[in-house]
Amino acid sequence: MTSLTVEKPPSAETEAPTRGKNSWARRLTPFGYLSPTVVLIVVLMVVPIIMVISYSFRDNVIVQDNSVFAGFANYATVLKDPDFLAALKNTFIFITVSMVAHLLLGLGFAMMLNSPLLSGVTKAIFRVVYVLPWLFTIAVIAVIWRLLLDPSGVINYLLTTLNIVSDGVNWLGDPGSALWVVTFVNIWSGYPFFMISLLAGLQGIPGELYEAASVDGANPWQKFWNVTIPQLRPVIISMAVLDLIWTSQQFALIWMMTGGGPLNSTEMLSTFTYKLAFSEYEFSTASASAVIVLLLTMVLAFFYVRQQRER
């Protein structure tokens, strides 16, 4: 006779710990994947920010062993410094003009590349030409434009040949023109990002909206103002706030082209803070300046996050 063995089903007491372990493992798995990124963020971002904030409330940090608590004295010193006020003014002009120009140029070129009047080959050629400034690094852009803007450079040669100017102009050495020249270079190097983003937004607008506007008798300007702009508004706002944040932190271009000169005419908050720390070795005051810049940037970041949530 063949004996049949009946397996006893596992009891509830055996299954409960197993289910509990699996449940905890499933809950902890995402944190395990995120842990390397969290560690990097804490080590490279959170810890340095906390250290800089603590330095800003103390005096004689880094250069001396015995630092003393100074309260808000470093912040008062920075806010009363005429160079800081000049840097704040220059930064405001720099980021505002750059953002507006990026928006206008980006939107204009994006609409041209999205126009049905141009053939596919023509659009491809223009896309390559317009994106070229975005392919260069900031260091390369700074070196190229310093050579072009040199008193004996190509730009002055062309201007003197066309009898627009009589002698070579020292564009970066003149306090009256240096800030505007640096702003122009920043606009030239940054507009392709706006152009690509707005072009993607334009291509995502349904054609039925323009057809409905044509049926209602709308002219091209009315279509642009009542169809294109409302559809692009989320992209425009997001890009504008991001551009303000990025441009306010621009350092390499300013430092490599003018170093903040001449006569502080191109001094920005970033270069001002850098000079305090590594030229004058005033690390406490530099930390206070860095915290002020961080707070100003956080205000812009707040509006960006708020706009994204509303979107």
TrEMBL record:
Pfam families cross-referenced by the UniProt entry: BPD_transp_1
SUPFAM superfamilies tied to this protein: MetI-like
Sequence segments annotated as region (Disordered): 1-21
Record carries keyword Transmembrane helix: yes
InterPro entries per record: ABC_transporter_permease, MetI-like, MetI-like_sf
Residue ranges occupied by any ABC transmembrane type-1 domain in the UniProt entry: 88-304
Keywords on record: Cell membrane, Membrane, Transmembrane, Transmembrane helix, Transport
Transmembrane parts of this sequence: 31-57, 92-113, 125-148, 178-200, 240-263, 283-305
Similarity comment: Belongs to the binding-protein-dependent transport system permease family.
Protein name: Sugar ABC transporter permease
Organism of derivation: Paractinoplanes bogorensis
